[in-house]
Amino acid sequence: MKHTLSVVVEDRPGALTRIATMFARRGFNIESLAVGPTERPGVSCITLRVDCTQHSLEQIEKQIHKLVNVLRVTELVAGEAVERELLVVRVSAAPERRAELVTTAEALGGRLLDVGPDAVVLELTGTPEELDAFHELCHPYGILDLVRTGRIGVPRASSRRRAQRRLAAIN
Amino acid sequence: MTGGDAILRSLEAEGVDVMFGIPGGAIMPTYDAMARGTAVRHVLARHEQGAGHMAQGYARASGRVGVAIATSGPGATNLVTPIADAWMDSTPLVCITGQVRSTLIGTDAFQECDITGITMPIVKHSWLVQDARDLGATLKAAFHVARSGRCGPVLVDVPRDVQETAFDFSYPADVDLPGWRPPTKVHPLQIREAARAIATARKPVLYVGGGTLNGDACGELLRLAEAGSLPVVTTLMGKSAFPETHELHFGWPGMHGAKWSNLAMNSCDVLVAIGARFDDRVTGKLSAFAPGATVVHLDIDPAEISKLRDADIPVVGPLRTAVAALGDEVARHRAEHAPVPETWLAQLRAWREQYPLRYGTSEEWLKPQQVLQTLQRLTAGTDVIVTTGVGQHQMWAMQYVLSERPRSFITSGGLGTMGYGIPAAIGAKAARPEAKVVCVDGDGCFQMTAQELVTATIEELPIVVVLVNNAHLGMVTQWQDMFFDGRRSHVHLTSQVPDYARLAEAYGGVGMVVTDETELDAALGEALELDRTVVVDCRVDPAEQVFPMIPAGAAALDMLEYTDAEASVEVRAL
User: What is the ipTM of this complex?
Assistant: First the structure.
């Protein structure tokens, strides 16, 4: 099962490497990873997507929590968090097919970033599922380059339950 | 003062009395500061691996943080094995390494290596100090992290120019580590639940690991065991946490544990793991381990709870507090007539009677078990610390040497580092000069770190090496004989080259050779009597195997035993 973990860390040299090393050493696999600053100076947030069992997830949370630079580990529970991802794609589009591609992309919330003689660059921000759909849509035109940021997220403002689940065994 | 002086003032402020190391280019400013004077004794090792294991031996014998110091590049990489060992066995260790100048980092400079990168998976934390003004706070944090929570190694890498920088130094009073919050309290509800399960168990067993020693909870353990009349089984790392001459001690579990101990662990109804981690060498086949038992798991490290075996009642927190509280609660239950498990204790005694440790005697050969039994007899009741290497001799030492005091048995358990014994013994002697320190070593292990005998003689840290010399890499030989159809592949070392006794003399110590049982008492007696570094080369039967044995991956109760009933010796530990 897939899980999204939000890891808040002190912005110190090696903080990300330590987390990545822990995953590698314990045989866990990272599916996507996004790192960036937070509202607090000197504090970064690392959002990890992992595919593992519930038992492994608990191990991962506890092992990450032991790292000295880690301030907080929480799971962003599906349905109780808002998750977004950015996709940028360069699609081959001859002039006669360009209008059709751009119209469809814009209908899905995509944006045209650049136009060349036989290709366009599009971006889309959305849920990972929306990005998957967009990816499929571009496919027939011929994808030249595609990059995704990996997901980031916060708990829902409207959620009654707390989406951020602290692990019970950690005092 | 300079950065080098600041490192020494920091160690002094931490109350460090001994550090173990070797100088070299990138750490020279700190060694220059030593020449200006420091209250910390420096023990000059002959190899950085030796320095690291000495710091480990010091830490395990004293309960304090061990300090090793080395230069950059090869000096630092030679510390990797002790760091990995300390990581696996949770030994508190601060390693200080020199690094090339800040301006040269990343340029493949002479003796440059990314030691913080190399050690990342095997340290609790590490620092590359980039500003001399951070040295105090960094070392303060390093000692705090090494000894708080689950103990372990940390590394502080200091570029040469940082050691040379002159600045105004002051050692901080507090650590500033917002992300480091090891458990400090124990949940009373969990204690109550655990106590009820233990006190009402018909067949309880305390499964005691090295965390009990690290958590300084041995006194509390004794009280808990006695208050509840609870049988105690100690792992290799937990050995000496509970007096092995006590009537409630029932041996050691696992691959080469006693049969009665494994029967106890695997037949119990409540298994109380105290600072133990369900290692594969203890459990054998995990799915067949202690089937049906309710598991109570006490540990300072929440990540150990349910890592391998699901805990029914987890208790996270400092073991000293936890075991003391558990002792109080169990005593209350017993006072309220929760019955003592008499039938179970009688069963354990019967198993011990029925399945003793056994080995065969021989006209031709000295048996290794006889060496260990003689050592046990000659040191019983005295202030002795035993260290070991890794292999057959280590297992015989576990089985035949009875530890009576906490921190009196020091060995490499998790990593299984051959060559650990001699330097660890030297470190232990530095920590406890009043104790007699004996390294039970194998001939394979001896040759990995023998150069440190010089450190023992020159630094006046005398140790007795009891060399169980079977001319082979014994444990590998045993596996080849048992599991590889006897195909011996590169395991023969020869018993007489090197000449261990003469080698001991070359290193400034005393050498003895024992080939017959009749010479054992006199030789070991004299070795223990002399206040010098002694190597007693005991030429033992190379065919001897360690029994009982649970083959790797097999269920604990499918153990192999010594079968030859003729002319065998039976030993029941107590």
Answer: 0.89
